[in-house]
């Protein structure tokens, strides 16, 4: 999980709960409290699904990207390229798949990563050597990309010896129906409660 997303999630949750407490003082009757409670629960779940839950799971045979609305299981045989232009993106013959949990670092995080790299002995400035900002060690996208590339290389070395012509398999894409239902049904519940 991204440190940036985690910080935004905690800050957003704090403001949502504070807003909910303030709205609780203005709510009238049981119906008003129910509207505030469902609205706050919906906002907190949205924060969780969009900022806290996204993840990247790497195994010996595949990489799994859990984004807010969709989960993608990409077999190593399908990976053709790993990029970090805007976020960690895995390219396959069947499309490209971005990971919401590994965004490209902002200016402040990039500067910190460069300063850390400069302090290491026998290292030249990462940006001077042509490394992309998204690939800098110590950043979410850089660390995730290094992990994915390392496992991909390990898989290619292992398979090259066992089965050199491994065919690409289509990634398994699965919508996160529970998230989608929550995003649609909870606001409808607020509207229904307000109309009663």
Layout: helices, strands, pairs:
Blueprint: H1 3-26, H2 29-52, E1 55-58, E2 62-66, E3 70-75, E4 81-83, E5 87-92, E6 95-103, H3 107-119, H4 140-162, E7 172-175, H5 177-195
Antiparallel strand pairs: 1-2, 2-3, 3-7, 4-5, 5-6
Notes on the protein architecture:
The protein has 196 residues and is of the alpha+beta class. The protein is built from five helices and seven strands; from the N terminus they run H-H-E-E-E-E-E-E-H-H-E-H. The protein has helices at 3-26, 29-52, 107-119, 140-162, 177-195, and strands at 55-58, 62-66, 70-75, 81-83, 87-92, 95-103, 172-175. The strands form two sheets. It has a four-stranded antiparallel sheet, with helices on one face. Strand 4 (81-83) and strand 5 form a beta hairpin. The mean pLDDT is 83.
């Amino acid at each position: 999980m991204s440190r940036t997303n985690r910080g935004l999630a905690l800050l957003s949750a704090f403001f949502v709960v504070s807003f909910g407490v303030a709205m609780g003082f203005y709510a009238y009757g049981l119906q008003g409290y129910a509207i505030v409670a469902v609205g706050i629960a919906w906002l907190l779940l949205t924060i969780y699904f969009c900022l806290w839950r996204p993840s990247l799971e790497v195994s010996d045979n595949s990489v799994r990207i859990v984004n807010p609305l969709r989960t993608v299981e990409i077999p190593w045989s399908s990976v053709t390229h790993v990029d970090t232009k805007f976020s960690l993106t895995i390219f396959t013959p069947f499309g490209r798949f971005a990971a919401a949990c590994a965004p490209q670092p902002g200016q402040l995080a990039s500067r910190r990563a460069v300063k850390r790299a400069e302090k290491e002995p026998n290292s030249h400035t990462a940006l001077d050597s042509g490394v992309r900002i998204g690939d800098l060690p110590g950043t979410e996208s850089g660390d995730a990309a290094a992990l994915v590339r390392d496992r991909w290389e390990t898989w290619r070395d292992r398979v090259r010896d066992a089965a050199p012509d491994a065919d690409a398999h289509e990634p398994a894409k699965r919508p996160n129906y529970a998230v989608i239902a929550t995003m649609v049904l909870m606001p409808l519940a607020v509207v229904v409660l307000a109309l009663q």
